[in-house]
Amino acid sequence: MATGIGRQRTLVTAVALAVLVGSLALALSAPVQAAETPRRGGVLLAAIGADPPSLDPHQESTFANIQLVAPLYSTLLQFDPLDSSKIIGDVGTEWKVSPDGLSVTVKVRQNIKFHDGSPLTSADVKASWDKIVFPPAGVRSTRKAHYKVVKAIEAPDASTVVFRLKHASASFVANLASPWNVVFPKKYLDTDPNHFKTNVVGSGPFKFKSYTRGSTFEGERNPDYFVKNRPYLDGYKFFISPETSVRSAAVRSGRAYIEFRGLPNSEVDAIRKQLGDKITVQEAPTPGWWAVSFNNRIKPFNDERVRKALTLAIDRYTMSKVLFPLTGLREVGALVRPGTEWAMSPAELEKFPGFGRDIEKSRAEARKLLAEAGYPNGLKFVMKNRNVKLPYQDFAVFFIHEWKKVGVEVENRPLETAAWFADGRDTGNFEAMVDPHVDFMDEPDLTLVDFISSSSTNWSRINDPQLDDLYERQSRTLDRAERKKLVNQMESIVLEKAYYAPGLWWVRSIVHWTKLKNWKAAPSHYSNQKLQDVWLAED
Amino acid sequence: MATHALPHPTVTAPLAPRLTAGDELVKFVRTKPLGVAGGVVILGMIGVALFVQVLAPYDPYRADYTAQFARPSAEHWFGTDEFGRDVMTRIMYGARIALFVGFTASFAGCTVGAFLGVVSAYWGGKVDLLLERLMDVLLAFPQLILALAIASILGPAVQNVVIAVAIPIIPRAARVVRSTALSVKEHVYVEAVQALGATQPRVILQHIVPNVMAPYIIMVTAQLGSAILAEAALSYLGLGAAEPTPSWGLMLSGSAPSYAEKAPWIALFPGIAISLGVFGFNLLGDSLRDALDPKLRRG
After folding, report:
1. Secondary-structure class of domain B33-53+77-296 per CATH
2. Is the ipTM of this structure higher than 0.90?
3. Lower Cβ count inside 10 Å, N or C end of chain B?
4. Which structural domain range is residue A338 located in?
5. Can you give the pTM of this predicted structure?
């Protein structure tokens, strides 16, 4: 009996303690929950690293474009802002892949209005995607090659879009969520497909307010946004400066609440030291790397021995140690992100030119190859670059110092963003060019497209039928293990023939004021830029 | 007709002995100690620039990744930068670019300006009117803003910096030289040689140009300091030399703003070098102006 009473007391005590702990936890958590209730109002201030060549995301591939205009537009599908591994709808509400994988049907949400008041229908979606996949003459579509699989796009009724594919594709649905493929109103495209290079009419959470080149870009809340009670913010105002120190100072002083692209770790540490818990730092391993493109069409870069010597001269493992604190470039890898399911192992990678661990041996081989190619005393060339400090300049400096060790003298020539794209992507007016490749997801269809002859992002002007064939085959292969083999084969050819000199993969450190809520750094700095769910705890 | 000589009293006065170049130099040293200090700084800079390969302890491009952000020490007097490059070596090599841009831009700008000034003064009329209005247009822009605009059109490169810095100097030199040439042109001896049938090029080259050399030299030295400062400013703004060239302005802009807290020597020493260089040229320029301008000469 006594034991029973004792047990009962113990039980009561335990229940009482549980209630007490529960109450305390509830009491303590209440203010936290209250603080985390989204707050309406405020203007998000951010610092952006460059001006875009144009405002049309279909035609551009720089953060300077998408970070400014993404909040103004909608896309068919999107990556979940709070979980980038999930695809969710935006203008599209549901999507279905046919059993044979040859068509994808997307239902389009009704009652969406563009900022000019006109309704958004499947005809607008079709017109926008036609512009991306089948651009008319005189209109650039930067990512056209990503959608080679598309045979036709149909809009059978106002709320349905059907993509007919040439073959089943493992990456197509994810590609529908590309942040670049915004929906434009058809009526403007009908009159001028280049209309949106200089104009903005979207259906996104914010409306265009103003843009002063080299200074600021502003958007204001769209009261008719199709997602109820969104956005939380009254607007956004972005300051533009290519100087890392200026953007960093803007974050420190509170003139900017965030720098979306990422700051070097040295700056991050200094900001953290000064502002403590007023700021939050998010680290995002990014599907993007920095590299050097050689113009394979011209001398001396049409000589494999020269290209191989130039890639052999780079000590990538030391580069990782040196550049990570300065720029955020860290991972040594090939053409797909190291550590992902498509990547080759470090041991496999070390067999390729420029990836060996014995740098002195590599340099000796580089000198030998240069001599064989007719350059026993080294060579000189100009490497064009973008005039954005982070990480372009430090990356170029490392390469130039390394090349100097094998007798190669290189002049670094920084260009303004538009000129850099024009010379690199559009005209091939360069000998060598600092050429990063950043995607919005880890997907070989996106990553490897730079190395096929028909791609508009093939800056190196590579023309290798073997690569074209492997790209097609990997894109069609649904078996992942088989596809990995083809992907690695393609990488092997690019590395062995040294068409291109990969540098390092990027790990971004994004600093933002803690009062900026509900924004999660996506792997890519192109994604999660619509800001529809972001709010400010205080102004 | 009777002629007779007028009484003509002869007045003789002892001429001051003509000073030799050595005497002039001694006089300059005695009377212009600040100018001498400026000259010493400039001679030091020129010496460093000429013999940098012998004097510099390291290669300016030698990156020592084991010594990034090293503090000033016996090994690296001015410390190292983010790539472990010796800051002192890069400042010494930077003197070459500063002097190259300073001298070439100042010399080219002043020479073109002086030529236009003499032409404008000598011919006068519509030529003068046209050239002067052109100079007005160029003078309407602040010197650095005009250099900035030209550099942004030409693109970032050292030779473009020379052009960008030289052009704004042209109207300033043209104005100063024109005013001197206008007064020289009215002198009796110029009228005399013209009456004797001297050709225009001869009048200009032999009789006007030598008399406008003093303001020309003053302009060249006076503009040197601002040319060096303009080079530093353009490089700082990303319109001058590009990384990894050892340029003072670039050293200040490249890594200094990011790492000034962590490694203040990265910003401090290039800043001192720019200040010292500009200070030296300005002191010398002022003293030369005092020494060469007859209105300011004493005794």
Report:
1. mainly alpha
2. no
3. N
4. 285-507
5. 0.79
